[in-house]
Write a structure and sequence with these properties.
mainly alpha, 11 helices, elongated
Protein backbone atom coordinates (compact mmCIF):
# COMPACT_ATOMS: atom_id res chain seq x y z
CA UNK A 1 0.00 0.00 0.00
CA UNK A 2 2.77 2.37 0.98
CA UNK A 3 4.75 1.53 -2.16
CA UNK A 4 1.79 2.32 -4.39
CA UNK A 5 1.28 5.64 -2.66
CA UNK A 6 4.96 6.42 -3.07
CA UNK A 7 4.82 5.64 -6.79
CA UNK A 8 1.76 7.78 -7.24
CA UNK A 9 3.44 10.60 -5.34
CA UNK A 10 6.52 10.47 -7.55
CA UNK A 11 4.32 10.29 -10.63
CA UNK A 12 2.52 13.45 -9.55
CA UNK A 13 5.90 15.16 -9.04
CA UNK A 14 6.99 13.94 -12.50
CA UNK A 15 3.84 15.25 -14.21
CA UNK A 16 3.93 18.53 -12.29
CA UNK A 17 7.58 19.10 -13.17
CA UNK A 18 6.94 18.61 -16.88
CA UNK A 19 3.91 20.92 -16.79
CA UNK A 20 5.81 23.54 -14.77
CA UNK A 21 8.69 23.54 -17.27
CA UNK A 22 6.27 24.20 -20.15
CA UNK A 23 4.55 27.02 -18.26
CA UNK A 24 7.77 28.68 -17.07
CA UNK A 25 9.45 28.49 -20.49
CA UNK A 26 6.36 29.97 -22.16
CA UNK A 27 6.16 32.80 -19.60
CA UNK A 28 9.88 33.50 -19.89
CA UNK A 29 9.80 33.65 -23.70
CA UNK A 30 6.76 35.93 -23.62
CA UNK A 31 8.36 38.21 -21.04
CA UNK A 32 11.76 38.24 -22.73
CA UNK A 33 10.48 39.24 -26.15
CA UNK A 34 7.19 40.96 -25.29
CA UNK A 35 8.25 44.37 -26.56
CA UNK A 36 9.44 42.92 -29.87
CA UNK A 37 6.52 40.55 -30.46
CA UNK A 38 3.91 43.24 -29.82
CA UNK A 39 5.62 45.64 -32.25
CA UNK A 40 3.77 45.88 -35.60
CA UNK A 41 5.37 43.74 -38.33
CA UNK A 42 6.28 46.70 -40.53
CA UNK A 43 8.14 48.37 -37.63
CA UNK A 44 10.06 45.39 -36.29
CA UNK A 45 12.99 45.98 -38.64
CA UNK A 46 13.75 49.16 -36.68
CA UNK A 47 13.46 47.51 -33.27
CA UNK A 48 16.73 47.57 -31.33
CA UNK A 49 16.61 43.79 -30.78
CA UNK A 50 15.40 42.80 -34.25
CA UNK A 51 18.63 40.97 -35.11
CA UNK A 52 18.27 38.90 -31.94
CA UNK A 53 14.58 37.97 -31.99
CA UNK A 54 13.87 37.68 -35.74
CA UNK A 55 13.30 34.17 -37.13
CA UNK A 56 16.80 34.11 -38.63
CA UNK A 57 18.41 35.79 -35.63
CA UNK A 58 20.60 34.04 -33.10
CA UNK A 59 17.81 33.72 -30.52
CA UNK A 60 14.84 33.22 -32.90
CA UNK A 61 16.70 30.75 -35.12
CA UNK A 62 17.86 28.83 -32.07
CA UNK A 63 14.29 28.46 -30.84
CA UNK A 64 13.30 26.95 -34.18
CA UNK A 65 16.16 24.45 -34.12
CA UNK A 66 15.62 23.44 -30.50
CA UNK A 67 11.85 23.21 -30.95
CA UNK A 68 12.23 21.00 -34.02
CA UNK A 69 14.75 18.82 -32.17
CA UNK A 70 12.36 18.37 -29.22
CA UNK A 71 9.51 17.29 -31.50
CA UNK A 72 11.80 14.91 -33.41
CA UNK A 73 13.07 13.31 -30.19
CA UNK A 74 9.52 13.09 -28.81
CA UNK A 75 8.22 11.32 -31.91
CA UNK A 76 11.14 8.98 -32.64
CA UNK A 77 11.56 8.02 -29.00
CA UNK A 78 7.93 7.17 -28.29
CA UNK A 79 6.67 5.53 -31.49
CA UNK A 80 9.36 2.78 -31.77
CA UNK A 81 9.20 2.18 -28.01
CA UNK A 82 5.43 1.77 -28.22
CA UNK A 83 5.59 -0.53 -31.24
CA UNK A 84 8.54 -2.72 -30.22
CA UNK A 85 8.52 -2.30 -26.44
CA UNK A 86 12.31 -2.07 -26.15
CA UNK A 87 12.12 0.44 -23.26
CA UNK A 88 9.50 -1.38 -21.20
CA UNK A 89 12.06 -2.73 -18.73
CA UNK A 90 13.34 0.78 -18.03
CA UNK A 91 10.24 2.97 -18.07
CA UNK A 92 6.48 2.45 -18.18
CA UNK A 93 4.82 3.27 -21.48
CA UNK A 94 2.46 5.76 -19.84
CA UNK A 95 5.43 7.73 -18.47
CA UNK A 96 7.06 7.67 -21.87
CA UNK A 97 3.82 8.92 -23.42
CA UNK A 98 3.75 11.79 -20.94
CA UNK A 99 7.36 12.66 -21.86
CA UNK A 100 6.37 12.47 -25.55
CA UNK A 101 3.50 14.90 -24.89
CA UNK A 102 5.85 17.17 -22.93
CA UNK A 103 8.41 17.36 -25.77
CA UNK A 104 5.71 17.71 -28.44
CA UNK A 105 4.09 20.55 -26.48
CA UNK A 106 7.23 22.46 -25.58
CA UNK A 107 8.66 22.04 -29.10
CA UNK A 108 5.71 23.73 -30.86
CA UNK A 109 5.78 26.56 -28.29
CA UNK A 110 9.43 27.24 -29.11
CA UNK A 111 8.62 27.12 -32.82
CA UNK A 112 5.74 29.55 -32.25
CA UNK A 113 8.17 32.09 -30.80
CA UNK A 114 10.64 31.25 -33.58
CA UNK A 115 8.05 32.45 -36.13
CA UNK A 116 7.71 35.69 -34.11
CA UNK A 117 3.95 35.18 -34.55
CA UNK A 118 4.29 35.90 -38.27
CA UNK A 119 2.70 33.25 -40.48
CA UNK A 120 2.81 33.15 -44.24
CA UNK A 121 3.63 30.99 -47.24
CA UNK A 122 4.49 27.34 -46.85
CA UNK A 123 5.51 27.82 -43.21
CA UNK A 124 1.90 28.60 -42.30
CA UNK A 125 0.91 25.13 -43.54
CA UNK A 126 3.46 23.57 -41.20
CA UNK A 127 2.37 25.78 -38.32
CA UNK A 128 -1.35 25.07 -38.59
CA UNK A 129 -0.63 21.38 -39.14
CA UNK A 130 1.42 21.52 -35.94
CA UNK A 131 -1.48 23.17 -34.10
CA UNK A 132 -3.85 20.45 -35.30
CA UNK A 133 -1.36 17.76 -34.29
CA UNK A 134 -1.11 19.22 -30.78
CA UNK A 135 -4.89 19.58 -30.42
CA UNK A 136 -5.54 16.08 -31.74
CA UNK A 137 -2.81 14.87 -29.38
CA UNK A 138 -4.81 16.21 -26.44
CA UNK A 139 -7.85 14.26 -27.67
CA UNK A 140 -5.69 11.18 -28.23
CA UNK A 141 -4.32 11.44 -24.70
CA UNK A 142 -7.88 11.36 -23.32
CA UNK A 143 -8.81 8.33 -25.44
CA UNK A 144 -5.57 6.57 -24.46
CA UNK A 145 -6.33 7.02 -20.76
CA UNK A 146 -9.77 5.45 -21.23
CA UNK A 147 -8.33 2.20 -22.60
CA UNK A 148 -7.87 -0.37 -19.79
CA UNK A 149 -4.19 -1.11 -19.20
CA UNK A 150 -1.91 -3.15 -17.02
CA UNK A 151 0.31 -1.55 -14.36
CA UNK A 152 3.16 -1.35 -16.88
CA UNK A 153 0.91 0.53 -19.32
CA UNK A 154 0.31 -2.34 -21.73
CA UNK A 155 -3.17 -2.39 -23.27
CA UNK A 156 -5.29 -5.19 -21.80
CA UNK A 157 -7.20 -7.52 -24.10
CA UNK A 158 -10.88 -8.28 -23.72
CA UNK A 159 -9.96 -11.86 -22.77
CA UNK A 160 -7.70 -10.65 -19.94
CA UNK A 161 -10.47 -8.44 -18.60
CA UNK A 162 -12.97 -11.29 -18.81
CA UNK A 163 -10.63 -13.56 -16.85
CA UNK A 164 -10.22 -10.89 -14.20
CA UNK A 165 -13.99 -10.53 -14.09
CA UNK A 166 -14.46 -14.25 -13.54
CA UNK A 167 -12.15 -14.07 -10.53
CA UNK A 168 -14.16 -11.14 -9.23
CA UNK A 169 -17.45 -13.02 -9.60
CA UNK A 170 -15.99 -16.05 -7.84
CA UNK A 171 -15.27 -13.81 -4.85
CA UNK A 172 -18.99 -12.94 -4.77
CA UNK A 173 -20.13 -16.55 -4.38
CA UNK A 174 -21.19 -15.81 -0.81
CA UNK A 175 -23.67 -13.23 -2.12
CA UNK A 176 -25.19 -15.83 -4.45
CA UNK A 177 -25.85 -18.08 -1.43
CA UNK A 178 -27.18 -15.48 0.99
CA UNK A 179 -28.91 -13.06 -1.39
CA UNK A 180 -29.61 -14.61 -4.81
CA UNK A 181 -31.69 -11.59 -5.89
CA UNK A 182 -28.81 -9.23 -5.17
CA UNK A 183 -26.41 -11.50 -7.06
CA UNK A 184 -28.84 -11.57 -9.98
CA UNK A 185 -28.84 -7.77 -10.13
CA UNK A 186 -25.06 -7.78 -10.26
CA UNK A 187 -25.21 -10.19 -13.21
CA UNK A 188 -27.86 -8.03 -14.88
CA UNK A 189 -25.52 -5.06 -14.70
CA UNK A 190 -22.93 -7.27 -16.36
CA UNK A 191 -25.26 -7.89 -19.29
CA UNK A 192 -26.50 -4.29 -19.51
CA UNK A 193 -26.16 -3.10 -23.10
CA UNK A 194 -26.46 0.63 -22.40
CA UNK A 195 -24.08 2.95 -24.19
CA UNK A 196 -20.81 4.11 -22.66
CA UNK A 197 -22.01 7.43 -21.26
CA UNK A 198 -25.37 6.01 -20.14
CA UNK A 199 -23.53 3.29 -18.21
CA UNK A 200 -21.33 5.86 -16.51
CA UNK A 201 -24.33 7.82 -15.22
CA UNK A 202 -26.12 4.58 -14.29
CA UNK A 203 -23.12 3.24 -12.33
CA UNK A 204 -23.51 5.42 -9.21
CA UNK A 205 -27.27 4.82 -8.90
CA UNK A 206 -26.98 1.07 -9.37
CA UNK A 207 -24.11 0.80 -6.89
CA UNK A 208 -26.08 2.76 -4.28
CA UNK A 209 -29.03 0.36 -4.69
CA UNK A 210 -26.82 -2.70 -4.28
CA UNK A 211 -25.14 -1.13 -1.25
CA UNK A 212 -28.53 -0.58 0.42
CA UNK A 213 -29.64 -4.15 -0.28
CA UNK A 214 -26.36 -5.50 1.05
CA UNK A 215 -26.86 -3.52 4.26
CA UNK A 216 -30.19 -5.31 4.79
CA UNK A 217 -28.37 -8.65 5.10
CA UNK A 218 -26.98 -7.66 8.52
CA UNK A 219 -23.51 -9.04 7.84
CA UNK A 220 -20.62 -8.33 10.19
CA UNK A 221 -18.65 -5.18 9.35
CA UNK A 222 -15.60 -6.97 7.94
CA UNK A 223 -17.61 -9.24 5.64
CA UNK A 224 -19.86 -6.34 4.58
CA UNK A 225 -16.84 -4.24 3.61
CA UNK A 226 -15.22 -7.10 1.68
CA UNK A 227 -18.37 -7.96 -0.29
CA UNK A 228 -19.05 -4.30 -1.06
CA UNK A 229 -15.49 -3.93 -2.31
CA UNK A 230 -15.92 -6.99 -4.57
CA UNK A 231 -19.24 -5.69 -5.93
CA UNK A 232 -17.64 -2.38 -6.83
CA UNK A 233 -14.64 -4.14 -8.39
CA UNK A 234 -16.98 -6.27 -10.52
CA UNK A 235 -18.95 -3.24 -11.70
CA UNK A 236 -15.76 -1.33 -12.52
CA UNK A 237 -14.46 -4.31 -14.50
CA UNK A 238 -17.66 -4.40 -16.49
CA UNK A 239 -17.28 -0.69 -17.21
CA UNK A 240 -13.75 -1.33 -18.45
CA UNK A 241 -14.86 -4.19 -20.72
CA UNK A 242 -17.52 -2.04 -22.36
CA UNK A 243 -15.12 0.88 -22.59
CA UNK A 244 -12.39 -1.16 -24.26
CA UNK A 245 -14.21 -1.81 -27.55
CA UNK A 246 -15.43 1.79 -27.87
CA UNK A 247 -12.07 3.39 -27.14
CA UNK A 248 -10.18 1.03 -29.44
CA UNK A 249 -12.53 2.07 -32.23
CA UNK A 250 -12.14 5.77 -31.43
CA UNK A 251 -8.37 5.36 -31.28
CA UNK A 252 -8.34 3.99 -34.83
CA UNK A 253 -10.35 6.99 -36.04
CA UNK A 254 -8.03 9.29 -34.11
CA UNK A 255 -4.98 7.93 -35.94
CA UNK A 256 -6.67 8.77 -39.24
CA UNK A 257 -6.72 12.44 -38.22
CA UNK A 258 -3.49 12.68 -36.21
CA UNK A 259 -1.01 10.99 -38.53
CA UNK A 260 -1.72 12.94 -41.77
CA UNK A 261 -1.31 16.29 -40.02
CA UNK A 262 1.91 15.05 -38.43
CA UNK A 263 3.25 13.88 -41.81
CA UNK A 264 2.30 17.18 -43.49
CA UNK A 265 4.03 19.09 -40.72
CA UNK A 266 7.13 16.90 -40.99
CA UNK A 267 7.30 17.26 -44.78
CA UNK A 268 6.94 21.06 -44.72
CA UNK A 269 9.48 21.38 -41.89
CA UNK A 270 12.01 19.35 -43.92
CA UNK A 271 11.43 21.62 -46.92
CA UNK A 272 11.71 24.70 -44.70
CA UNK A 273 14.99 23.50 -43.18
CA UNK A 274 16.37 22.62 -46.62
CA UNK A 275 15.52 26.04 -48.05
CA UNK A 276 16.87 27.80 -44.96
CA UNK A 277 20.21 25.98 -45.16
CA UNK A 278 20.41 26.55 -48.92
CA UNK A 279 20.07 30.29 -48.27
CA UNK A 280 22.95 30.18 -45.80
CA UNK A 281 21.03 30.45 -42.52
CA UNK A 282 22.94 27.89 -40.49
CA UNK A 283 22.65 29.46 -37.01
CA UNK A 284 25.97 29.04 -35.13
CA UNK A 285 27.29 26.11 -37.19
Amino acid sequence: MGTTGKKNWWHIIYQSTLALIVILVTLWLGFEGYDYYQTPLEERFYHEHHEWFKASGLFGHGLGIIGTALITIGVFLYIPAKKYGFLEKYIRLRYLLEFHIFLCTLGPILILFHTTFKFGGIVSIAFWSMVLVVLSGVVGRYIYLQIPRSISGRELSRQELKEEQERSLAALAVVADQAPELYQQIREYQNDEKGYFARRSHFRNHFSQLKSQLGALHLDAKEHKLILSNIKAEMVLQQRIHRLALMQKLFKYWHVAHRPFALIMLLVVIIHIGVTMAMGYTWIF
